[in-house]
UniProtKB/TrEMBL annotation:
It comes from the Eukaryota. This is EF-hand domain-containing protein. Belongs to the recoverin family. Keywords: Calcium, Metal-binding, Repeat. Residues 65-100, 101-136, 147-182 form the EF-hand domain. InterPro entries: EF-hand-dom_pair, EF_Hand_1_Ca_BS, EF_hand_dom, Recoverin. CDD domains: EFh. One of its GO terms (molecular function) is calcium ion binding. Pfam families: EF-hand_5, EF-hand_7.
């Protein structure tokens, strides 16, 4: 019994956390409590591990390779880089995905591509994520124009407006807003 109670310590919602989440999301205190209960059902210790996160992705993409892409998404959601997603990180990410405007969602997509979190996406990072997306979607045609390297070359040409071999957040968001095909490739759920 004491062990079970020990697990729950630190996962209860306090007024400060609820206040922070109501200010930074579109959720009411009641909805936050509902999300919290559901989160604790799946993660009783209040921590969503990388393995659990990947298992969720595998449910959506059972036929394909989910590990590489889900690890990029996990890194983005784990805002404090402590190796797990807590409830606050989880709800903030859910809020952007569900309620964010197009710019917010594209900003989140940018963060997924910006693997080293330096505020820029370089060719290497873009190639890594495009390859992970291909794996996730089961894309087998990776030759010629459809190879990850050639795809990235075209993306860089379109988005890297100042020709510094990097894509800034503004270049990414503005470029995706102007080009529906590019947005569909780089941020399909936006």
């Amino acid at each position: 019994m004491g062990n079970k109670e020990g697990k729950v310590v630190g996962v209860e919602l306090n007024d400060e956390t609820i206040d922070r989440l109501t200010k930074n999301t579109n959720y009411t205190p009641e909805q936050i409590h509902q999300w919290h209960e559901a989160f604790l059902r799946d993660c009783p210790n209040g921590k969503l591990s990388p393995r659990q996160f990947t298992e969720v992705y595998k449910k959506f993409y059972p036929e394909h390779e989910a590990e590489k892409y889900s690890s990029q998404v996990f890194r983005t959601f784990d805002m404090d880089s402590n190796g797990y997603i807590d409830f606050v990180e989880f709800l903030l990410a859910v809020n952007v995905n569900s309620n964010g405007d197009v710019r917010d969602k594209l900003g989140l997509a940018f963060d997924i591509y910006d693997i080293n979190s330096n505020g820029q996406i370089d060719k290497k990072e873009m190639t890594k994520v495009i390859t992970a997306i291909y794996d996730l979607l089961g894309e087998e045609n990776r030759k010629g124009d459809n190879s990850p390297e050639n795809r990235v070359k075209k993306i860089m040409e379109k988005l890297d407006l100042n020709d510094d071999k990097n894509i800034s957040r503004d270049e990414f968001v503005d470029g995706c807003l102007k080009d529906d095909v590019l947005r569909q490739l780089l941020a399909p759920n936006v």
